[in-house]
Specification:
The complex is a heterodimer of chains A (about 250) and B (about 250).
Chain A: E1 13-18, H1 25-38, E2 43-47, H2 52-63, H3 69-93, E3 97-101, H4 104-114, H5 118-124, E4 133-138, H6 141-149, H7 170-192, E5 195-198, H8 203-214, H9 228-236, H10 248-253
Helix pairs in contact in A: 2-3, 3-4, 4-7
Chain B: E1 2-3, E2 18-19, E3 22-27, H1 34-47, E4 52-56, H2 64-72, H3 78-102, E5 106-110, H4 113-122, H5 127-133, E6 142-147, H6 150-159, H7 178-199, E7 203-206, H8 211-225, H9 244-248
Helix pairs in contact in B: 1-8, 3-4, 4-7
Classes of the chains: A alpha/beta (about 250), B alpha/beta (about 250).
């Protein structure tokens, strides 16, 4: 059950995936999304750092290296709260399934690894909905680094944690930064009771585990009326000429 | 000296116990005349020989532009608004204000966390949450609260740019039009500032008076705070000492 910060239950369900880059969490979430949609559930998806409201500021800050640990934390919190207020919460209130690629635990791990106070950042995210299940994809550091380095040789400034001044070599800095993040995640797993998935298992095996954990929570969740407008068209012998203009077709996919 | 003290968890990093500069805040509701006073004070201090800098909301290198754009689109939710403004302030604090205080400047800022708190609380944001978010802020040397009332505010707004969406609380007061909501919103904001006055030790200045009277109060208040901060001015040597008068002959 997804719960508001004050403990009040919400009709929808919130599943989140967490883990360092290269843990395979996004792939697993994608597989889960496709399965749930295929089963006819109403699914809303929300991704870390994707709010259009603060996006230009975050990009600017990263590109020009303007972000300090504090402003990095605040701008990502603004991103999160905007998506919470406008995407996730309304969907949960309506009884839908919300899938989040990264959630507040990312901030608890990353921002604290950057040096902000753990209680400060936890306080900011006190507004967040408590997830139904939060999956943490645990992967050994060297394995994660090996996965990331293949096919993506160029590391970005903040991604590599170069702002921390741990090392001037981006690869070395990245490894040191990720190690710190992993240590923070380990604390978070216990503190918030995250569900740990062994991310070194074969892809399909992980997905089976995830689905087995998710399935019991799906009772009574809102199902989408698939092609409700299609039925109306057939019954009324219409073509739906103007439906494209209002984006009904896209709406059905969502 | 500015004691280095933060309201909450503060900023990460190492700080000395004191900064040689001074942080002075001007607070008060929209249209009360803060920016006019900041402009006057800055000029007065500079011409008196002090090192001065000024700052204000939405002026950060990082978030100023993005915040302006988001506001124009009226798409900011209440909590996002707080966090976006917090980002803007934190950036200015770290990039401009603290370096200036370390260097011994008098920093005058047009608004600070109190305006952000005030707007948030009036909109029903949880108090503890807002206080925690803004807990990175440095405690200033002095906060001057320019206090006015609606009867004085309305003519000023009408003479200036008219009623603004955010300054009329249109984002959360859904019952009335611009005028009714402006009156309702500004009354609540002023009441909120009044309520915070004691908690944060505001120095209240009656801003229903003319610009000059307000300025004189602020100037006298600031004078005491900045005592001894002016670099000494050595005596300019007389032309005769160098025998210039003879050379000119």
């Amino acid at each position: 059950m997804a719960q508001l910060a004050n403990g009040k239950p919400l009709p929808g369900k919130l599943f989140v995936v967490e883990g360092i880059d290269g843990s395979g969490k996004s792939t697993q979430l994608d597989l889960l999304t496709k399965w749930l949609i295929g089963e006819g559930y109403c699914v809303a998806f929300s991704e870390w750092n994707s709010s259009p409201v603060v996006g230009t500021t975050t990009r600017r800050g990263k590109k020009k290296q303007l972000l300090s640990p504090t402003t990095f934390s605040l701008i990502h919190a603004a991103d999160f709260i905007d998506r919470l207020e406008r995407q996730m919460l309304p969907a949960l209130q309506a009884g839908a399934i919300v899938l989040a690629d990264r959630y507040m635990f990312t901030a608890f791990a990353r921002d604290v690894a950057r040096g902000v106070h753990p209680q400060w950042v936890r306080g900011i995210y006190a507004l967040a909905v408590r997830p139904t299940v939060a999956f943490y994809f645990r992967v050994p550091l060297d394995e994660a680094i090996r996965r990331i380095m293949t096919g993506r040789p160029q590391l970005k400034y903040y991604e590599a944690g170069l702002d921390l001044g741990l090392s001037s070599d981006p690869y070395e800095s990245f490894a040191l930064f990720q190690k710190r993040i992993l240590q923070e995640y380990d604390k978070i797993v216990d503190e918030f009771g995250l569900t740990v998935i062994d991310a070194t298992l074969p892809l399909t095996e992980q997905q089976e585990i995830i689905r087995r954990i998710v399935a019991p929570h799906l009772q009574g969740v809102l199902r989408s009326e698939r092609s409700a407008w299609r039925e109306a068209l057939t019954k009324e012998q219409l073509y739906g000429r103007y439906l494209k203009e209002i984006g009904a077709e896209r709406g059905q996919q969502a | 000296m500015t004691k280095v003290k933060f309201y909450g968890y503060g900023l990460p990093g190492k700080f000395p116990k004191e900064f040689p500069g001074r942080l002075i805040v001007l607070e008060g509701t929209d249209g009360v005349g803060r920016s006019t006073q900041v402009a006057l004070l800055r000029e007065w201090l500079e011409s008196s020989g002090y090192a001065v800098t000024s700052s204000g909301l939405k002026r950060s290198m990082l978030a100023g532009k993005g915040l302006q754009m988001a506001q124009e689109g009226n798409v900011l939710g209440t909590h996002t608004n707080v966090l976006f403004y917090a980002t803007d302030l934190a950036d200015r604090l770290e990039r401009e204000i603290i370096p200036a205080l370390r260097a011994g400047f008098v920093v005058i800022t047009d608004r600070y966390i109190y305006s952000l708190l005030c707007r948030a609380l009036v909109r029903g944001v949880d108090r503890d949450w807002a206080y925690n978010v803004l807990g990175f802020a440095l405690v200033p040397d002095r906060v001057f609260y320019l206090r006015t009332d609606l009867n004085h505010l309305i003519p000023r707004v009408l003479n200036a740019s008219g009623f603004n969406y955010w300054e009329s609380g249109m984002d959360f007061l859904h019952k009335g039009g611009y005028y009714e909501n402006y009156v309702e919103y500004q009354s609540r904001v002023i009441a909120q500032f009044d309520a915070m006055s004691e908690e944060f030790g505001f120095h209240t200045v009656d801003a229903t008076r003319g610009v000059h009277e307000v300025f004189v109060d602020l100037r006298d208040g600031i004078r005491k705070l900045i005592k001894g901060m002016k670099p000494g001015s050595p005596k300019v040597p007389d032309a005769t000492q160098y025998g210039l008068d003879k050379q000119l002959e």
